[in-house]
User: What shape does this take?
Amino acid sequence: MFEKSDEQLIEKALKGQKKAWFSLLKRYEKPVYHYGLRMTGNNADALDLMQDVFISVFRNLSSYRNEGSFKGWLFRIAHYRCIEFYRRKRPQQGLDDAPEIPCTAQPAEQLIENTQRNAQLVSAMQQLPLAQKSVVELKFFGHFTFEEIAQQTGMSVNTAKSRLYGALAKLKTLMEVDYVEL
Amino acid sequence: MSSYDNAELLALWLEDNLTPEQRTIFEQRCVQDDDFAQQVEAASTIKLHADGYQDFDVPQWDRGKTFDCQERGSSQERANSQERVNSQERVDSRNPFEYSARRQRWAWLPSVSFAMSALAIVLVLTGTQVSLTSGELRIRFGHEQSQLAMSKLIDSKLDTFKQNQQEAFSLYAQTLQQQQLESASQLTNYLLTSSRKERREDFAELIKFVNQQRSDDQLFYARQLNQLQQDVYLDANGIKVDGTQQ
Assistant: This one.
């Protein structure tokens, strides 16, 4: 009924209240987990990424200055943690390179049980380069504006737009292929 | 050819920020440019897929680890927090829990204090009365006393007043009676004393008068006797009889 705002929870978490931190965490763990799931393509990596993100968020919580939404700030951290995650896992791969190593862990599609379309989209996204995948994720699933995406990813607004444009063409092809295979 | 490129137009369309002019260009581009039309279709499809994406719950994971990691906080990671503005903030941001652990011990005190103050204010404003009578605890809200309590209070006050008045009246009557008795006694004594004195004075006056009359009578009789004696011893010429002259 009287749900505390993000700012109140942050303030309390900074004072050392574990409960407030867990409330904040529970509020955002689902979007972050699904972000990780769509960005990494498998459950284990999504959980690892989510944990990395929240550790990083808490470590930098006192530097959050209430400028912009907390969600935007959180996903900016999530984006950089995701890049770090890919660098650790695939050090030779650039942001704009298409993924070369196929996922060996449990595929995310198996976990997403609602429809085949979920699985189809996530599967297609896994074949995009990280930079394009980030923009698609933040635009279509995070519902951020291009300016916010640019702030979160550190690219220009025009770059974000052109990366989305490029990603759409690839996704359309990939999803058509998946549809034919299905 | 317009100045808007396809990526720009698509972005504006996705954010629903197209002006009427841009919308016209957008629609023309959709008709004339097949590639662009396919891109728009792909964007619509993906948007549809994304909107239809159903989240499922997060699998169980160790949330406490994010908390524990902060408490351990390696010194290297602390050194990386260069964006802090002042030293106090730097200390805080290195490890918020470390900074707050000292304060956490007494963190409940202001809240409890505030809550108690608020409770006290509420109790005063609502006129809460707590009474414990013969093992019965009563909590009453509101400044007005209940009708029953009011009538009881009035009755008891009236009884006390009545009792006081009765005592005062009886004391007054008793005093008055005693005063009357004393007055009557004094009056009686006065009357008795005064009448006795008057009678004594009257008798004294009478006796004095009688004594005076007797004295006057004796003097009169003495003169009469002297006169008679002189008459007896003188003759008719006034010569003294011999025997008498001797």
Q: What stands out?
A: Residues 72-100 of chain B have pLDDT under 50 and may be disordered. DSSP finds ten helices and two strands in chain B.
